[in-house]
């Protein structure tokens, strides 16, 4: 994989054998993507393009260029390998810095040009955002939530400091806005348990508390992403007017219809459940639990297919950092889970690019190959619309900074 950095002085013509622009149904052949002063200036058929002597050319014949991929749900502070070791590292600054740098690097090498971090108690994702911004470490653009808004004593003590009442919710969000978080993450329910099919950890907030959180975030111009499972939890979240449902295991068709009508994003994170059975720790789960994991995965895949049919704004997110979900590396797993659910590749790729960019608040600059957009692109061998697996190893990644 070759990484190409683009800066505001870069003038570059990419001679793409094939281009998928983030929106189209198909690829276009023999296209020149002109980058001028670090932005996409033109996208034209090769025969009409005029070569300029002050623009460098890169020949990408035989490759397909597409918008860089976006993971709308990660935790940079966790590595997906060992949860306890990740937490221990938070108290060891050099080790945690190295781990964050590795997570950023792995994300970029797998073609991710932007990621949204769902939070960690130390707010390390804010640090990572800064490192990418200043060029200290190469990585995708980080859309940071800092710490999650959780309820003290409930699930998620590693995600945020915990709140107790509306006043402390407002106080936490004000502090996060002060640190200039891009979005606010709220944990509305617990995790899916594997003891009994459909069982989910208890709700964290009542309607009034959740409304307080959403109002405070929106008043500060921050979209709200919520960790939520169970129909009751999703009802609560939708009533409060959240912007995106994360996970959303066991949501209902009626809720998907509401989300489609309102334009609420859904980030279903199949990998967060399914990948547990891909790790060496799979045998830690008794057969009964493994069965529940599989059934939970299948029901989520069915709902993704339904969401696609209903026109819900689906967005790809992996929950990288969760057990068995590795930064960058596991991204393709998520795409393939959706594909096996029956969602067409082109729709999956839109969920991974143009719709994901919008969910991250970057809709005007990322997710499409289009004049005025940032040239954060990948080049892969083969046609991803025919075979998503060609995304496993991008030949080139173009990133600006
Ligand atoms: Zn998460």
Automatic annotation (TrEMBL):
It is an enzyme of class 3 (hydrolase). SUPFAM superfamilies: Composite domain of metallo-dependent hydrolases, Metallo-dependent hydrolases. It comes from the Bacteria. Coiled coil: none annotated. It holds the Pfam family Amidohydro_1. The keyword Hydrolase applies. It comes from Moorella mulderi DSM 14980. Its EC number is 3.5.2.7. Residues 64-398 form the Amidohydrolase-related domain. Keywords: Hydrolase. This is Imidazolonepropionase. One of its GO terms (molecular function) is imidazolonepropionase activity.
């Amino acid at each position: 994989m070759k990484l190409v950095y683009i800066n505001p002085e870069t003038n570059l013509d990419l001679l793409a054998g094939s281009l998928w622009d983030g929106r189209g149904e198909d690829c276009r052949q023999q296209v020149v993507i002109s980058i001028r002063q670090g932005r996409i200036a033109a996208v034209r058929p090769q025969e009409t393009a005029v070569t300029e002597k002050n623009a460098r050319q890169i020949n990408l014949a035989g490759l397909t260029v597409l918008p860089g991929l976006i993971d709308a749900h990660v935790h940079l502070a966790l590595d997906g390998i060992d949860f306890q070791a990740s937490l221990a590292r938070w108290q060891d600054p050099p080790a945690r810095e190295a781990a964050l740098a590795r997570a950023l690097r792995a994300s970029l090498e797998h073609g991710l040009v932007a990621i949204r971090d769902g939070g960690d108690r130390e707010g390390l994702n804010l640090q990572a955002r800064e490192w990418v911004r200043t060029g200290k470490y190469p990585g995708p653009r980080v859309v940071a939530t800092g710490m999650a808004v959780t309820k003290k004593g409930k699930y998620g003590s590693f995600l945020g400091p915990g709140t107790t009442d509306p006043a402390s919710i407002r106080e936490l969000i004000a502090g996060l806005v002060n640190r200039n978080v891009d979005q606010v993450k709220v944990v509305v329910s617990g995790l899916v348990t594997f003891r009994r099919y459909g069982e989910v950890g208890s709700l964290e907030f009542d309607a009034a508390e959740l409304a307080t959180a959403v109002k405070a975030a929106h008043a500060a111009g921050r979209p709200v992403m919520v960790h939520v499972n169970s129909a009751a939890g999703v009802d609560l979240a939708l009533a409060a007017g959240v912007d995106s449902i994360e996970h959303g295991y066991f949501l209902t068709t009626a809720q998907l219809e509401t989300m489609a009508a309102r334009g609420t994003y859904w980030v279903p994170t199949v990998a967060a459940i399914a990948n547990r059975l891909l790790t060496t720790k799979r045998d830690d789960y008794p057969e009964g639990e493994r069965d529940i994991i599989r059934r939970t995965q299948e029901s989520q895949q069915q709902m993704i297919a339904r969401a696609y049919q209903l026109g819900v704004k689906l967005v790809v997110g992996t929950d990288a950092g969760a057990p068995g979900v590795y930064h960058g590396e596991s991204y393709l797993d998520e795409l393939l889970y959706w594909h096996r659910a029956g969602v067409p590749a082109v729709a999956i790729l839109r969920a991974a690019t143009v719709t994901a960019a919008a969910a991250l608040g970057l809709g005007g600059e990322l997710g499409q190959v289009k004049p005025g957009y940032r040239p954060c692109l990948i080049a892969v061998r083969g046609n991803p619309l025919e075979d998503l697996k060609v995304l496993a190893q991008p030949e080139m990644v173009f990133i600006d900074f």
